[in-house]
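so i finally got all the pieces together for this one. its two components total, 498 residues if u count the protein bits. some of the lines might not be protein, just check the labels. i wanna see the whole assembly predicted at once instead of chain by chain like last time, that was a mess tbh
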Amino acid sequence: MLHDAERHWRAAGLADRLHVEHFRPAVASYGGVGGRARFAKSGREADADGGTPLLLVGEAAGVLRPSGCRMGICYSCVARLTSGRVRDLRTGREHGEEGELIQTCVSAAAGAVEFDL
Amino acid sequence: MTTAPDLRTTDLRTTDLSKTDIDDFGHELDRVREEVIASRGEDDARYIRRVIALQRGLDAGGRLVLFASLLPPAWLLGTAALATSKILENMEIGHNVLHGQWDWMRDPKIHSTTWELDSAVPAEQWKHSHNYVHHTFTNVLGKDRDIGYSLLRVSPEQPWHPVYLAQPLYNAVLATMFEYGIAIYDAELERAWRGEKTWSTALARLRGVWRKVRRQVVKDYVAFPLLAGPAFVPVLLGNLTANVVRNVWAHTIIFCGHFPDGVEVFTEEQMAAETRGEWYRRQLLGSANIDGGPLFHLLTGNLSHQIEHHLFPDLPSNRYRQIAPRVRDLCERFDLPYNTGPLLRQTASVWRRVFRLALPGPRPGPASVASPGSEPLSAVA
């Protein structure tokens, strides 16, 4: 999919306007039980398994937003949790309160979650 | 103190740590991180709130005293307080808040998504070029633009060009104007110049910079001097001096973080298949500390613990000093260098490099194809 996008933008002479990043999962996984992830603003939702970062779940569902390192260090991808709890994939620690800003690249759903995205 | 050879690219495949050792090293560091996170709490929150209160006191007090700056001692005192305030704000508070070090407090006023720096750079642009690009690709040639800030040759792996002959001079100029160098940095003008991005993208960034610069200039060079009435000129000069002092200090400390002898650079291939332990090792080998006491660490924004900061960019800065002995012990145990030294020595080392690499050569150390056991070059004679 990324390659098709790149080809398309290149053909239009706008290759440098398309920001593409290829990543391997860099976080050690402490998976758990996932749940339904809802992205309220964009009106999208998807099933999120307990081991997949919510950033990726959102992107797969078409919720595109800023991101950076994808390993939990740059804080470019933080998003506001409106309900539910998440699991930090680096430590396995479960957390999340309404209104908390979550690093979506290193957090997976721990049950049903909703984001203000 | 490290005895690592100067100015070379490390070959991770030929350095002596086994895969198991690297994994163990990574796990040990993960444990350090988890312990700090588990023990974060009221004491830490009190620390950052106290530093912010101190900084605001210095700022308000400094500006107030400067109103009397027709008297030379008042000028000196006010300017010193204001310079200290700006140093604290940029380094111990702003830089660290923007790293998300204090996000766990869930205080919307001390948060990476809301903080704006008392400096020419817009916080959003800073977070992109620093938190993401520099901290992810640390010391990877062609990826980390902080290797010489796209302006200087600080590693022999960077091809020489005659323009570098003047780099001691323009590094000195950069030091005095450092906040503006940082401000335009995320526009990535050199990449627009090379055709890697459009000028319109770069210029859009610069428009954001201009809005921030205008605000800063109005505050320091128009509004406060006007408020001072007859002391317009001394107040303006006091603010200018405070900004320049902060610039030179920040430049000095920041350059000691990655450019002293012994700090290593890496290739993209080395980074490509990195494990967590190897990621930690690159951060360690790519960074250098500065020795000093508690007040010194505070005034460097704890960037004197550059190694600990690069291993754990989002741990509260007041904890770096506390974990430093453990990190150092781990380095000893795994036979890895821990680059540290007093400010004078690290700074002299940086400037030696700036002068030496203004000239062509030396031949870069063994690149990623070095054979096992080959002796790395000790480049700067």
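Chain A has two helices and eight strands.
Chain A touches chain B through 18 residues (CB under 8 Å).
anyway lmk what u think
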